[in-house]
């Protein structure tokens, strides 16, 4: 089990009770959730932390809480995509940061560390995002990922503006 990962500026770690409030605030922020179907309620955010912790127990990894010298700034981690498609199952690397953490290179720094952990188990990692999310696509490209395809996300309702998604892939060197 990988409980924590350190980078030069960040600590990726298991979740704590005091992460719940800033995580809920981040997930309720319309700017952070612009490329999702809707912001999350406090109850939904708390439930997500509970699912993430259970996922860690089952897989030995998951979404690590990310903190800098000021405290919680978001998450990054690994999660299996298992819904039915041509490219699943696939191990996904993902991230979400609070707005004050944007523009500092934290997503790339944290994700780079997580890539190394992912390659301990698989030969390729994927990352997906709404086709409108150019910020996340830039992080994917900085990680060395290559755009592989466009697809309609099966868990997003038909006609929703974030249903069109892109898939990026990184293969182990």
Tally of separate helices = 4
Strand order of the largest sheet: 1-2-3-4-5
> What share of residues are in beta strands?
25-35%
Low-confidence runs of at least 5 consecutive residues: none
Cα(first) to Cα(last) distance is 24 Å
> What does the average pLDDT come to?
97
Query: How does the major sheet shape up?
Result: 5 strands, antiparallel
> Can you tell me the overall shape?
globular
Number of DSSP E strands: 8
Based on CA atoms alone, the radius of gyration comes out at 15 Å
The helix content, as a percent range, equals 25-40%
Reading the helices and strands in chain order gives: EEHHEEEHEHEE
Helical/strand content category:
alpha+beta
What do you see in this structure?
- This protein is an alpha+beta fold and 173 residues long.
- The chain is built from four helices and eight strands.
- A five-stranded antiparallel sheet has the order 1-2-3-4-5, sandwiched between helices. Strands 6-8-7 form a three-stranded antiparallel sheet, with helices on one face.
- α1 crosses α2.
- The longest helix has 18 residues.
Features:
173 residues, 5-stranded antiparallel sheet, 4 helices, 8 strands, 28% helix, globular
Which helices and strands occur, and which strands form pairs?
Elements: E1 4-6, E2 11-13, H1 20-28, H2 42-59, E3 63-68, E4 71-81, E5 90-97, H3 106-118, E6 124-130, H4 134-142, E7 146-152, E8 164-171
Antiparallel strand pairs: 1-2, 2-3, 3-4, 4-5, 6-8, 7-8
Helix pairs in contact: 1-2
């Amino acid at each position: 089990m990988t409980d924590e990962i350190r980078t030069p500026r960040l600590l990726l770690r298991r979740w704590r009770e005091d992460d719940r409030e800033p995580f809920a605030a981040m997930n309720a922020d319309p700017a952070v959730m612009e490329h999702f179907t809707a912001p999350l309620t406090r109850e939904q955010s708390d439930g997500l932390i509970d699912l993430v912790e259970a996922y860690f127990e089952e897989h030995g990894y998951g979404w690590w809480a990310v903190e800098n010298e000021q405290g919680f700034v978001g998450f990054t981690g690994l999660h299996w995509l298992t819904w039915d498609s041509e490219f699943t199952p696939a191990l996904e690397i993902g991230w979400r940061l609070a707005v004050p953490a944007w523009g500092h290179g934290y997503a790339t720094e944290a994700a780079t560390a997580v890539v190394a952990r992912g390659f301990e188990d698989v030969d390729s990692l994927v990352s997906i995002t709404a086709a409108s999310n150019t910020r996340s696509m830039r992080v994917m490209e900085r990680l060395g990922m290559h755009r592989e395809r466009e697809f309609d996300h099966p868990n997003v309702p038909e006609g929703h503006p974030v249903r069109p998604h892109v898939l990026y892939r990184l293969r182990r060197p």
